[in-house]
Structure formats: structure tokens, C-alpha cells
Amino acid sequence: MKILPSLLPVMLLSAFSTNSNAADCGSFSIADMNWNSASLIAHVDQFILNNGYQCDAELIPGDSVPTGISMIEKGKPDVAPELWTNSIKDALDKGVADKRLRYAGKSLVDGGEEGFWVPAYLVKQYPEMATIEGVIKHAELFINPESDTKHAFYGCPAGWTCQITAQHLFNALKLDEQGFEMIDPGSGAGLAGTLSKAYDRHKAWFGYYWSPTPVLGKYEMVKVDFGTGADVDEYRSCTTQPDCASPKVTMYPPSPVHTITTESFAQREPQAFNYFAKRGFTNQQMSALLAWMEDNQADGETAMYHFLEAYPDTWKAWVSNDVAEKIQKAL
User: Fold this and answer.
1) Where is each ABC-type glycine betaine transport system substrate-binding domain found (predicted)?
2) Could you read off the pLDDT of 111-120 as tens digits, one per residue?
3) Hey, which end of the chain has fewer CB within 10 Å, N or C?
4) CATH pick for 25-109+256-330 out of 3.40.190.10, 3.90.1150.10, 3.40.50.300, 3.60.21.10
5) How far apart are CA 267 and CA 282, in angstroms?
């Protein structure tokens, strides 16, 4: 076939555009946060973006509040894959208003989940135990290892923010009048240990916990319904405040957990930004992954390979078919 000289510039331009589009994802940094779920997500994002979109994504160490503040003040890192935004909501919202930051999507699509929980096998035996009235009705089942006259409620470790919320809700529900005593487990490991020990022995347990966590990935638990729904205003103005004198009963509202990017990144890397807008994990998925990480003493990178190999239906829903094929080949 003879090619007319006048067509050569058009063909060369077309070839250049194709190659340019294939490599139009540039270099940027993703914060590798210092807790398991965030580190896993960061490694997943890096692998998918580098292998599926031909980006040059670099992981750099990060932490919750310092990373958010650094993104606002210095424009680095470009991406925080899992930020619990309640802790610095005002600063983040101002960063968005000043066109320094952008909310890309939800890392945890359900939001972080908190509540008072009982084992599922208790609810199977006593269906009413899915409600606080049912728990109170069967209060004698919750043996207190420190008292023969009080029932056990396991609270949040001293010094944690959830110690304040759990204490206020314990008081608002008047659980002390029902014979319950709040037990300080001493640490996060201590709290997990009390639940694990009870579950392994098929015993009753009642207390505060949160998700996603390895514990709720291993053990089937039921969040106790207070019958009130979540009153966000009450929660923010009183339940979370140490000096609130008259707390009211409310369920915990979900804690927003977002992927945050800088505004310059969002404008510079639209393909990558759109990926972050679609990428998200349910609490059930993340709890199961965290349990796997704990059982296998795995870091974020090892867990990333496990996730991509074991959950293809999940991550393939975030990307196009051709991108999925590239990722599959890279695995």
C-alpha cells in the first residue's frame, strides 16, 4: 500500500497521541499510613495505578493528622488513601474551600463503625438481645470477673476518645442502675482479649468495639440497637465532649473515612482521581483482610497481593476491562 506524503504528518500525530494517552499518568506520592488498613489500601492503589494506568506512584510514610496538615500547607503528599476525617474536619473543609484539597471518594464505603456489641450466638439463642432492652433483660449472663454483684460491660481503654463516648452512653442508658459496671480493659489488646476469650468459650460478652478491625473480621458480632437512631448533633455537641453533664441516648453515627487528594493532583491526574472516586472497601471486607493480616503477620504489601488475588470481583469493579487485564498480567 502506498502512503501519500501528505498523510504522514497526520499518521505520526495520531501515533504520538496514542502513545501519549497510554502514558499520560505522571508521577505523584501516596501516603503509606502507619496502620494496617491504610497501608494495605496504599499498596493496592500503587499497584493498580502503576500497572493498570502506567502511573509513577511512590509511597511515602504518613500519619493521620500530620499528613492532612502537610497536604494543606505544603501540597504533599498528593494522596492520603484513608483519612478519618472527623479528627481534622474543620481544617480539611477549609483546605477544600481554599482550593488546596479535594475529597476524592470513600475509603470505607460504610464509614468507620462504632457501637456496643454482643456475640451473634447470643442473639441466635435470645433474639431480643439485638436490642438494649434484651441485653438488660439477660444482664445476669454477663459475668463480671471483678465482682459477684455487678454485670460486666467492657468499655474503651482509658485515654482513648471512645472512652468518653462509651462512658456517656453507658450513663445515658442508665446501665449502672441495671447492675452493670464498666470495666476498663487497660489497652486495645486487652479489650480484644476479653472478647476473644469469651467468644472462644462461647460465653456472653457485652461491650464497646469498632469496625473495621481484625476482631470483627474473625468473630460474628451484633451491634446492639438502642432504638434511637443516630443523633449527629447530640453526638457532636455532647457525646464526644468530656464535660457534657446530661448525655442522651444515641447510636454512634458512622465516622466518614475518605480518600483526600491535593487540588493540583486532581487537576493534573484526572484518570487517577477518577479511580480514587470509585475505589472503596466495605467494613466487612476490610475486617476480613485485617484478620488475615493478623493471622499471617502480613504487612501492607503482602496483604495487597492477597487482596488482588483473592478478591478480583471487588477491584475489577473499580477499573475498566482493559485496565483489569493489565493488572491481572502484572500479578
Assistant:
1) 29-309
2) 999 999 999 9
3) N
4) 3.40.190.10
5) 28
